[in-house]
Amino acid sequence: MSFCESCGKKVGENSKFCENCGTPVDSNKPASEPKKIVEEKVTVKKNHKGLFHGKELIISGVFSLILITIISIETHIPALGILLFFAIILCLSTIIIGLTSIAFNKLKSDKSKKIIKITIIIVLVIILIISLVIKINSLSRVDSSNFQSATYNLNYQTTTQNSIPKANCYYESVPYEEQEAYSVEEPYLSTEYYQAPITYEVIKNDKGTTLHGINVWAINTIKIMNTDSEGGLFTVTQTFETLTDDPITKTSSYYINPQETKTFVEEIDISLGEDFIVDSKLTIPDKTLSRQVTKYTTVTKYRTVTKYQQVEVC
Predict the structure, then answer these.
(1) Sign of torsion, CA 270 273 274 277?
(2) Domains in the chain, start-ordered, CATH in brackets?
(3) What is the 3-state secondary structure (H, E, C) of 79-100?
């Protein structure tokens, strides 16, 4: 059995090319010794430096990031914004790849190296997507503010142009009619109801004495006539006072029709020859009356007025 002179892998007896690296195989040449092949394999592994040069990538990425930062601070040209943005993303990606390559060269397992490759690609894609979203949002905000500023400038220019008088033009006052609303207080008649006492006349109010058997009684007589057109309940309260006894109060009520007369009589027992006084109070009923009163209400009216407006005549 022979071995490949390039990679050291075993080669079949009838094979013309190495199945591993594709190097032509001379079938007439005697087989190399396995020991020499192992030494060549070791030499190949020693010469393999990995997928990337880690330290060089980190140094170049950091240097480029510092340079781009200085340019972005010193330069205020909006057109360079997107280019600087993608340059910063590229520098960050270079640093990440450099760090990954250092770890990659220290691994011995092919499976671990494959996982590292897939992971770094996924991380870079995620960073790129997030950065693009952030940049698009910031650009949309800038465009919106620029649009508002441009609109303001356009309005300002339009106003300024309108305010500049044109040659051979003047303003003339032109009359026009317009409906104007105004308020007035207009009177109207309203029926108002109120209470008033019934008219009456006291025809008689006398005091005296009378005998009931051998007893003497003090008596007071009040005669009232209803002179109104409506009837009502009249109440008379009479209080008798003597020198020896406490005051005695008596009350009586009668409904008196219009033009009718009623007599209110009250009496108390007193001693013979005793003097007395009577205090009378009359409660007059009320009647409901109506009257026409003038009130005012606010009315909205319209009138045609002439106004003037300035019209430009050229």
Answers:
(1) positive
(2) 2-144 (no CATH), 199-284 (2.60.40.10)
(3) CHHHHHHHHHHHHHHHHHHHHH
Q: Are strands 261-270 and 2-3 parallel, antiparallel or unpaired?
A: unpaired
Reference 178, options 301, 304, 308, 310; nearest CA is: 304
Contact 279, 207 (CB under 8 A): no
Per-residue pLDDT of the chain (314 residues), as tens digits, is 677 877 877 777 777 778 778 777 766 665 555 444 444 444 444 444 444 455 665 666 666 667 666 665 655 555 455 566 666 666 676 677 767 666 666 655 566 656 666 766 776 677 667 766 776 776 666 556 555 555 555 555 555 555 555 568 889 999 999 999 999 999 999 999 999 999 999 999 999 999 988 889 999 999 999 999 999 999 999 999 998 889 999 999 999 999 999 999 999 999 888 899 999 999 999 999 999 999 999 999 999 999 999 999 88
Q: What is the pTM of this model?
A: 0.39
Residues with Cβ within 8 Å of 76's Cβ and at least 6 positions away in sequence, in order, are none
Q: Scanning the structure block, which residue is given the tokens 């060089």?
A: 56
135 neighbors 127 (Cβ within 8 angstroms): no
Residue 289 pairs in a beta bridge with 194
- Structure tokens belonging to residue 266: 């009250």
How far apart are alpha carbons 101 and 46 in whole angstroms? 16
Burial class (CB in 10 A: 0-12, 13-18, 19+), 27: exposed
Phi, psi (rounded to 5 degrees) for 86: -70, -30
Token couple for 7: 């990679």
State the Cα–Cα distance between residues 160 and 153, nearest whole angstrom: 10
Return d(Cα 48, Cα 44) in angstroms, integer: 6
